[in-house]
Amino acid sequence: MTSLEAIILGIIQGIFMFLPVSSTSHLVLSQHWLISRGSALPPPESPEMILFDLVVHVGTLVSIAVVFKKSLSGFLSRLRGDLGQYLGGKKGCGEFLYLRLAGMGLFSVFITGLVGFPLKAYFEQVFARPAAISITLTITGILLYITDILGPRKRGLRKINPKVATTIGAAQGLALLPGLSRSGMTITFALLSGLKRRWAAEYSFFIAFPTIIMATILQSFQVWHINDSLNVGVMQLAIGFLVSALVGIGALKLVLKLLYKAKFRYFSYYVWVLAAVVFISSLRGAL
Q: Were both Cys, which of 1, 56, 71, 97 would link to 13 (CB 3.0–4.6 Å)?
């Protein structure tokens, strides 16, 4: 991988991480396209390229931290307060909302692992099959369209229970499949569970932190066990990380604005067109 390719892929990740159109599918399709044009990139399904994809995902976590700085700092402050009271023996002095929310978030991540880990090998095979990605992109478009036709949601933070956490966690686990948008899946199923749009977005992006970090650590261990020389260096990983973080800030702000105004159906049109292009291109051998 060259530094220019790392920059290009970092920009793609930064733009599409938060647009609910599956950043992973855009990364994979871009890699297939570069390889078809003579690039020496490793195959998209190779452990080192999957690691690169995860590293640029970690880069976009920086974007979440920047955009949600106020919400994150407030949550962490209240969580420390709840934890201090709970450990101090004041268990009957409050509802410990933020401690319970942290528990629900971690439970969602646990469910993601239960769903995603057993299917990891199968999901990675899809990285090599653009035609299969066109199908998952079509599904993503349908889900995005559904979010806009839903009526007002009533469920607030206090009503996030194990059932809701399980639903969102399972959706995130399935979103490990290329073409299924992580943010699109989690936000859609959060809305279907009744969560208000603001809380659906914040819950979705907050649980991205432990999920993506844990997936990156696991993938790093897998790559370190490869005996062959790697074609993705530390410099390229660092470039992809930095570029995705910077570009992702603007993309996230745009997504939040459109989500709150129930404009996700515009992305569904884009995804359907992309799915058709990918499917036709794969039949012609262009991808």
A: 56
